Amino acid sequence: MRSTANISWFADITLADRAIVGGKGGSLGELTRAGIAVPPGFVVTTRGFELVLAELEKQRQIRSRVEALTLHDLKGIRLLSEELRTRLKNAPLPPDVRSDIVAAHAELCGPDPRWPLAVRSSATAEDSEEASFAGLQDTYLWVKGTEAILEYVRSCWASLYSVPSISYRRKGGTSENGVAIAVVVQTMVDARSAGVMFTRSPLTGDRSVITIESTWGLGSAVVSGEVTPDRFVIGKITGQISVREISDKRRQDVTVESGGIKQIETPEELRRAPSISDGELKALAEIGCKVERHYGRPQDIEWAINHENEISLLQSRPETVWSDKDKAPVARPAQNPLEHVMNIFGGRR
Amino acid sequence: MNTTLKTRCFPLPSSLKVVPGTERAQAAYPYYMQFAREDDERFWFYNSMHFPEPMSVFDVTTAEAAYCALGAANTRVHSLPTTLGIDYRIINGRIYIGGNAVTDPAEIARRTKEFQQRAFYYYEHWEELFAQWKQKMLALIRSAEALPKLALPEFEPLEHVRAGRGIASNHYLLDIYQKTLEGYFRMWHHHFEFLLLGYGAYLTFFDFCKKAFPEISDQTVARMVAGMEAEIFRPDDELRRLAKRAIELGVDDLFRDGTAPGEIMQCLEQSESGRKWLEELSDAREPWFNINVGDGFYHYHRSWNDDLSMPFASLPGYIANVKAGERIERPIEKLMVERQQLIDNYRELLNSDEERAAYDQMIQLAHRVFPYVEGHKFYCEHWYTNLFFNKIREFGALLAEHGFFPNAEDIFHLTHYEVEAAIVDLMTSWSNGSPPRGPARWTPIVNERKTAIAEWARHETPPALGPVPDVIDDPAIVMLWGITRENLDSWLAAGEKPDSNEIKGFAASSGVVDGIARVVMTVDEIDRLRRGDILVCHVTNPSWAPVFQKIAAAVSDIGGSMSHAAIVAREYGLPAVVGTGTATQKIKDGQRIRVDGGRGVVTILQ
Question: How far apart are CA B468 and CA B155, in angstroms?
Answer without folding.
Answer: 63
